[in-house]
Amino acid sequence: MAKRVFFSFHYQDVIDFRANVVRNHKTTKHEVAGYFDSSIWEESKKESDLALKRLINAGLQNTSITAVLIGSDTYSRTWVRYEIMKSLQKGNKLLGIHINSIKGKDELTKRLGPNPFEFLAVEFSTDGKKIYLKEYVNGKWQKYEHLDGWSVNANSSDWGKAYKLSRYYSVYDWIKNDGYNNFAKWIE
């Protein structure tokens, strides 16, 4: 059965065509790609925070995987962080894909961008019954403001501890790890 994938990315990477290479690779393959693209486009800078959250929440409906396309500034984008945290809350499988190794419309590649999973974290309550969300901003960890935590049953070894999301989620490089041929395996 085909997976429904939500692609999370910084809109600049669409303009530069790097995100498009990943999102559209299934159309150039001669076999069934094994997924449906459920990403949304950045609608408008004029949208309110509530309207953007609703748009993202609707885009995530009926998805089971969130693929974060990592460019130069993806890690710092407010709405990419929201898409990641909302995907985590929803229970989607998460993975990251570096796209700066893909040639942009200028035919150049870039140095890999920072891993967004390094800048987001979960913290377990001291009794292990609740999870709190954290983000790294301006050189310090703080409470993630856009979503509350939720109830969990954590292992006692995790009680009172915080972990970066990079502990839990894999990151690939589209070129180095041959995403064209391996994407379907990554989302399994």
Sum up the structure in keywords.
188 residues, alpha/beta, Rossmann fold, five-stranded parallel β-sheet, five-stranded antiparallel β-sheet, 6 helices, 26% helix
Provide a descriptive summary of the structure in words.
- With 188 residues, the chain is an alpha/beta fold.
- It has a single domain (3-113, 166-186), classed as Toll/interleukin-1 receptor homology (TIR) domain (Rossmann fold), CATH 3.40.50.10140.
- It contains six helices and ten strands, in the order E-H-H-H-E-H-E-H-E-E-E-E-E-E-E-H.
- The strands form two sheets. Strands 2-1-3-4-10 form a five-stranded parallel β-sheet, with helices on both faces. Strands 5, 6, 7, 8 and 9 form a five-stranded antiparallel β-sheet that branches.
- Helix 4 crosses helix 5 (78-90).
- The longest helix has 13 residues, at 78-90.
- It is globular.
- The relative contact order is 0.18.
- Residues 29-35 have low confidence and may be disordered.
